[in-house]
Every structure is written in C-alpha cells, then in structure tokens.
Amino acid sequence: MTPSQAPDIKVPYSYLKEQFDDPEPILNAFRDQLERCDFTFGRELVEFEQKMAKYAGAKYAAGTSSGTMALTMLLRAVGVGPGDEVITVSQTFVATIGAIASIYARPFFVDVTDDYTMNPNLIEQAITEKTRAIMPVHYSGQPAQMEKIMEIADRHKLPVIEDACCAISAKINGKHVGTFGKGGAFSVHPLKNLNVWGDGGFIITDDKEVYDRIILLRNHGLKNRDEVELYGYNARLDTIQAIVGNYLYDQIDDITNKRIANAKNYDSGLSAPELSQFITLPPRRTGERHVYHMYMFLAEHRDTLLNYLIHREIEAKIHYPIPMHLQQASLEQTVPFGKTDLSRTEEQCKQIITLPVHQHLSKEQINYVITSIKEFYGNKLWK
Ligand SMILES: Cc1ncc(COP(=O)(O)O)c(C=O)c1O
User: Fold this and answer.
1) Which atom of ligand 1 is the closest one to the Cα of 163?
2) Mutation to probe ligand 1, out of 187, 197, 238 (largest number of atoms < 8 A from CB)
3) Tens of pLDDT along 215-229?
4) N or C: which end of the chain has fewer CB within 10 A?
C-alpha cells in the first residue's frame, strides 16, 4: 500500500473529547459545590487526598496546583536550597529541572539506561559535598530502578524525591512509585493517565514532617490566618479539580490496564524480525508495572518516520528532541549545572519517538500504526 492509498483512519494523540463525552456527573458535582462555595480547601479536596494516599499506599497525600509545584515544594520540604546539588536526569520534561532551578539549586545530570530512566550505577560518581537530594524520574510511566537508587541514597543519607508526574499507578513488585523515597510528586494535567480539567498535582509521603511542610508551603507558609511561618507559594489544588479527580478515581485501573494492553500490542507488532534493524524497544523488566503515559522507542530515520506517520494521520510525537542539559535555559542560566557523560541521553533524543497509546484507541487503530511503520521500513520510505 502506498501512502496515497492510506485508509481514512486517524490515530489522535489526545482523547479528551471521548473521555469527557458525558460530563453531567462532574457538572452536577460542580453545581453542588457552587451551593457551598468552598472553592479552596473544599471537602472534595480532602476526599481526593485521602483517595490518592490510600491508592498509592502512602500515609499522606496533599493536592497541589501542578506536578511542577509538587516537585518544587518537595525539594524545599527536604531542605534543598540555593547552591545545593540535586542528582537527576536530562532525559525528562523541563519541569523536573525547572523545579530545581527555580529554588536556585543545581541540577547534576547523570545518564540514563535503555529504559530512559536514571542509571543507578552512575549516581555515586556524581555525589559531591554539595549534593542534597536525588531526583529520579519515572519517565513515560516506566519506573526508575528504585531499589538500587534507594540503596545508594540510604548509604549516603540523601533524601530521594521521585518525579512520578507521568507515573500514577506504576509499581515495582507491587509497591507504588512515589513511596520509595521521602516523597513522590504526581501530575494530573489533562494528558496524564489520571487527569483533571486544567493543571493539578499532588504529593505523597510517609513522612509527617515533609507533609506538614508541604501543607505550609502550598498555602503561603501560613500557620494560621495571620501568622506566616515561612515564605511559600499559592500552590493549592482547586476544589473543582479535585471533583474531577474524584470522578476519575474509579477509572484509574481501567485506564491504566487499557494503556498497558495497547502497549503490549505495539510491543508484539514492533518486535517483528523485519523491524529489528530499525527499531529498538526499551527492556521490559518483570515485576515492574510501566503505565505508558507515553509509548516510546528508538527508531532509525526517526524524523522521516515521524513525517510519514503524520501524513498517515497518526499523531506521533517526539519527547523530546533536545535534552535538558543542551537547552538554552541550561546553557545560559546563572546557576551552573553539573554533569557526567550524557552520551546515551543525547543519542536517545536523536532517535526517540512516541506513539499514541491512550485508552480510547481501538485494536484496528493500533494495527494501522504498526502496519504503517512496517510499510515505512519495508518500502525504504526514508530514501
Ligand atoms: C516528568 C515530568 N515531570 C514533571 C511534570 C510537570 O507536571 P505539571 O505539568 O503538572 O506541572 C511533567 C509533566 O508533563 C513531567 O512529564
């Protein structure tokens, strides 16, 4: 089949229209809240926090205005401040690094493994007398290698903040990500696996001191109406967003399982022998629950493949072509960053590609994507 004969199937990246095609239950809950007018710190926020703590198996959860603010406040809550180094990865969304830089701490980048998450074997050589925390990222929904990371962190008495913004419901041997370190940050931004109607996030922790600090930080550091204990932020999760989160709570496992099933279908289609010289799938380790916020792999001729897929009405994307240490903001920032060799990160950014994997895709759409990729390589369409 040539591209001009492509059937009229669209494989969209976003699924929000389908997901919220019956908004009545949410709108009714909004109306109920409107009667009470408890727009900040309403009872649905408390309900959301209790649900998320229980779901993840953590003692405490606190809603935040975004995943970025959840990360920023967790860093401050464990004592990271100006000039301190935080060991993290460059293979991530900007928010991981923005959170560190915004409190004038310094990112110290280590390279990743073939699963696009922090390589634990590189952490120790990055530790200096200025290191104050380690921040792995469960990138794309793939759990970072937490058991190894925690072993090193514990040995050096360093707190670990988990960037679990893409990884709600991800687990390692049954234990939720975000519960390994001192605290985990999650995002409920519209395109996350659990999503609200705008920005939002939350933290989980078992540490009462960290929790208390977050509660202060997210509300201007106010101890009570009149007394400020420390300077913080306006970084609360709105009650209306908590209403949406509560509505979707019952669907988390269903959403996640559908994404995992779609990813399995991609894995088996893209493991075809004729694709082996063109496509490298990341390793799938047993005992880990990857939740496929993004379905990613490395592709030869990536940019022409991307164009071809878009031409076929498949909304593939690149996350991300430029790693964080090579971004203008890193190169020009006044707070310098540290790094070890990042060649694997740089190589991955040249080849990485993301396919739509959301829960509203049909088997036919997944097959259409796989067929399109096979056609691209089979017919040498990059030439
Ligand atoms: C790895 C990672 N960290 C942090 C964030 C920030 O989350 P938010 O958009 O809710 O601020 C994101 C969002 O995409 C992310 O992917």
Assistant:
1) 3
2) 187
3) 999 999 999 999 999
4) C
